[in-house]
TrEMBL record:
One term under GO cellular component: cytoplasm
Record's compositionally biased regions (Low complexity): 17-27
Domain C2: 646-771
Protein name stated in the entry: Phosphoinositide phospholipase C
Ranges of compositional bias, category Acidic residues: 500-515
Annotated gene: PLCD3
Database matches in InterPro entries: C2_dom, C2_domain_sf, EF-hand-dom_pair, EF_Hand_1_Ca_BS, PH-like_dom_sf, PH_domain, PI-PLC_fam, PLC-delta3_EF-hand
Organism the protein comes from: Macaca nemestrina
PROSITE patterns, alphabetized: C2, EF_HAND_1, PIPLC_X_DOMAIN, PIPLC_Y_DOMAIN
Length: 791
């Protein structure tokens, strides 16, 4: 169940089309000239498009290297790694041959390439190899790091430099270039005898690879129309013509012709008319002229301030033509408000890479959380051998990591982002007093760790801000500790206080394993030194929702289980909203979620909870929502809450938000180049449907879906309109999901994209789909038309 109360609306599917009638618009470049070598070795043509065929590092990677894969102190296996000619993937050898798709990884799935011993694996197991010979390839999602040692330092550097160049070039590619490279990589694979000529059988193989089951008669007709040499083989310019026909986008051509008229080009005034109909903010003639200069490919047209169909498609496939408002991709919100006025990306059991019962703990989990914009991480600290502080999920079979290694990971990776807003440690301390000194020695030195209240900057002194109101902007690059603090009157004598995360008596038995009396006493020890580190995030038990009349105290944080938070939302909706307007609240999953499953964070955001902690290692719609919530504002991990959740006297109640205020209409038009779910089965073609979900206050939660299209994942067409009535649009997230329809079992996930309604642009837009792990599925897109009606 995706959200509290769904209004499910699905029409029965109409009779699916007998065959996919494939047409096509992303016009490809002109056919290659003889100097291009025709289509000989089409994979290398892809690298040529990247401008990397002459790069020495890339050429060395094409030849391949024998690198040692390092898994443990004794497992160091030599394997051949070789860049594929498409420039998009790397083939690697396995001891036991597997399916072809299990022998490659894709460049676009790489999160980072690190030199030397810069991973947990190489620090522990790579001592036999000089750091200069080592590199780590870190992947997006849950895939494990690849730790490698090269025969020489120069060879390691070639792979580091080469992968860095390929990633940079891939990131700089336009959507049209990505599509061109993608189709040529499949063309190369479909050419079974590598003679640079395509028989009809090979063309049919190509079509199945790109996820379309075209009628044989229609496919042969298209094939013969391009076979100008009449020899039942396509080569050179004939192949390019076939691909141009295959990639046509009739729906885009129709829109273009509505505005261009008979001359089949858009003048700047005509493009301006299109922008105004789109509902583009700041649509002016100068803006239209700027778009022509940016996206038009034909130099003559550009000189005359005209846009051709190619340029129009380039614009609509660019980030400016996407559904996400590009002005929201940088930090655009006020970052000088109190901490309690922000949603803050937060992780639960950050150290885990799998379940909380027996899964591995790793510093890599922290690094991956930082890469996803996380700004509040959890440290479950226990006393290890020799009093060394360790981190793991207590009383379980999860593995253990050193506290100091986590701190080192924070130093190296927590503030490498463009906008290094403050990071919070959610410290759950189970160590005895003797270990506290060791904790402190391992904390970051210098200016990172906040150890005392900071002086107010001159620009804010007139505001007389108290510590709980300190803004994120003024804490950039700093680490805050959330934990228990000794009462001021007893801070010198060191009286003990509990530092457990769980604060609720009624849930305590479920949330924590039973401990002996001695263990409980040990866990309750808090030294004055540790107490002094708690400056802006003082952990306190939530006793009442009524504001105390006292003056503001150092920023207080209450930790609630999801069950307790849901109870407060149901029973004291508005009071809880007001509470969260002035104080931080952290919500975490129930301990009964043994497999580290997540709850829906939207329910907690509806009431203004700031630190909604999720298991980042567990993919699913919950993490999609989290990624969508923090997709905007530069992905800095801080998003300003709506005004109704920031006002101390707010009347907003998520359980009773009032009448509908906004109508959202989404016409689902087409999809392009959806991924093939089972690459090892040539005849397995997806039957896609699109579902649009609204996640917001309970009264707004809804989902509607299109019919499915039979056997076409390449360019399915729907043309169906889905409509939603919203009562609290400022809180709503919109999730676009593509699934493979199955009449006898649950549908298979294909891709998704989630973003805030407030960042959704109107008009004709492309949705660039993501995988379950949040990796790009480029060039897979949805093409939709969005209308938002507000009072």
């Amino acid at each position: 169940m995706l959200c509290g109360r769904w209004r499910r609306c699905r029409r029965p599917p109409e009779e699916p089309p007998v065959a996919a009638q494939v047409a096509a618009p992303v016009a490809l470049p002109s056919p290659p000239t003889p100097s291009d070598g025709g289509t000989k070795r089409p994979g290398l043509r892809a690298l040529k498009k990247m401008g990397l065929t002459e790069d020495e590092d890339v050429r060395a990677m094409l030849l391949g290297s024998r690198l040692r894969k390092i898994r443990s102190r004794t497992w160091h296996k030599e394997r051949l790694y070789r860049l594929q000619e498409d420039g998009l993937s790397v083939w690697f050898q396995r001891r036991i041959p597997r399916a072809p798709s299990q022998h490659i990884f894709f460049v676009q799935h790489i999160e980072a390439v690190r030199e030397g011993h810069q991973s947990e694996g190489l620090r522990r197991f790579g001592g036999a190899f000089a750091p200069a010979r080592c590199l780590t390839i870190a992947f997006k999602g849950r895939r494990k790091n690849l730790d490698l040692a090269a025969p020489t330092a120069e060879e390691a550097q070639r792979w580091v430099r080469g992968l860095t160049k390929l990633r940079a070039r891939l990131d700089a590619m336009s959507q049209r270039e990505r599509t061109h490279t993608w189709i040529h990589s499949y063309l190369h694979r479909a050419d079974s005898n590598q003679d640079s000529k395509m028989s009809f059988k090979e063309i049919k193989s190509l079509l199945r690879m790109v996820n379309v089951d075209m009628n044989d008669m229609y496919a042969y007709l298209l094939f013969k129309e391009c076979d100008h040499s009449n020899n039942d083989r396509l080569e050179g310019a004939e192949i390019e013509e076939f691909l141009r026909r295959l990639l046509k986008r009739p729906e885009l051509e129709e829109i273009f012709h509505q505005y261009s008229g008979e001359d089949r080009v858009l003048s700047a005034p005509e493009l301006l008319e299109f922008l105004e109909d789109q509902g583009e903010e700041g649509a002016t003639l100068a803006r239209a002229q700027q778009l022509i200069q940016t996206y038009e490919l034909n130099e003559t047209a550009k000189q005359h301030e005209l846009m051709t169909l190619d340029g129009f498609m380039m614009y609509l496939l660019s980030p400016e033509g996407a559904a996400l408002d590009t002005t929201h991709t940088c930090v655009f919100q006020d970052m000088n408000q109190p901490l309690a006025h922000y949603f803050i990306s937060s992780s639960h059991n950050t150290y885990l890479t799998d379940s909380q019962i027996g899964g591995p703990s790793s510093t890599e989990a922290y690094i991956r959380a930082f890469a996803q914009g996380c700004r509040c991480v959890e440290l479950d600290c226990w006393e290890g051998p020799g009093g060394e502080p360790i981190i793991y999920h207590g009383h379980t079979l999860t593995s253990k990591i050193l506290f100091r290694d986590v701190v080192q990971a924070v130093r190296d990776h927590a503030f490498t982002v463009t906008v290094p807003l403050p990071l919070s440690y959610s410290l759950e301390n189970h160590c005895g007093r003797a270990a506290h000194g060791r904790h402190l020695r391992h904390h970051p030195k210098g200016t990172m760790l906040v150890t005392q209240a900071l002086d107010s900057p001159k620009s804010l002194r007139s505001l007389t801000l108290h510590p709980p109101h300190w803004p994120p902007q003024q804490l950039k690059g700093r680490v805050l500790v959330k934990g228990k603090k000794l009462p001021a009157a007893r801070s010198e004598d060191g009286r003990a206080l509990s530092d457990r995360e769980e604060e609720e008596d009624d849930d305590e038995e479920e949330e924590e394993e039973v401990e002996t009396a001695a263990q409980r006493r040990l866990a309750k020890q808090i030294s004055p030194e540790l107490s002094a580190l708690v400056v802006y995030c003082h952990a306190t038990r939530l006793r009442t929702l009524h504001p105390a009349p006292d003056a503001p105290q150092p920023c207080q944080v209450s930790s609630l289980s999801e069950r307790k938070a849901k109870k407060l939302i149901r029973e004291a909706g508005n009071s809880f909203v007001r509470h969260n307007a002035r104080q931080l609240t952290r919500v975490y999953p129930l301990g009964l979620r043994m497999n580290s499953a997540n709850y829906s964070p939207q329910e907690m955001w509806n009431s203004g909870c700031q630190l909604v902690a999720l298991n980042f290692q567990t993919p699913g719609y919950e993490m999609d929502l989290n990624a969508g919530r923090f997709l905007v504002n530069g992905q800095c991990g801080y998003v300003l809450k709506p005004a109704c959740l920031r006002q101390p006297d707010s009347t907003f109640d998520p359980e009773d938000p009032g009448p509908p205020r906004t109508t959202l209409s989404i016409q689902v038009l087409t999809a392009q180049q959806l991924p093939k779910l089972n690459a090892e089965k040539p005849h397995s073609i997806v039957d896609p449907l699109v579902r649009v979900e609204i996640h917001g206050v309970p009264a707004d939660c809804a989902r509607q879906e299109t019919d499915y299209v039979l056997n076409n994942g390449f360019n399915p067409h729907w043309g169906q309109t889905l409509q939603f009535q919203l009562r609290a649009p400022e809180l709503a997230l919109v999730r676009f999901v593509v699934e493979d329809y199955d009449a006898t079992s649950p549908n298979d996930f294909v891709g998704q994209f989630t973003l805030p309604l407030s960042s959704l642009k109107q008009g004709y837009r492309h949705i660039h789909l993501l995988s379950k792990d949040g990796a790009s599925l480029s060039p897979a897109t949805l093409f939709i038309q969005i209308r938002i009606q507000r009072p």
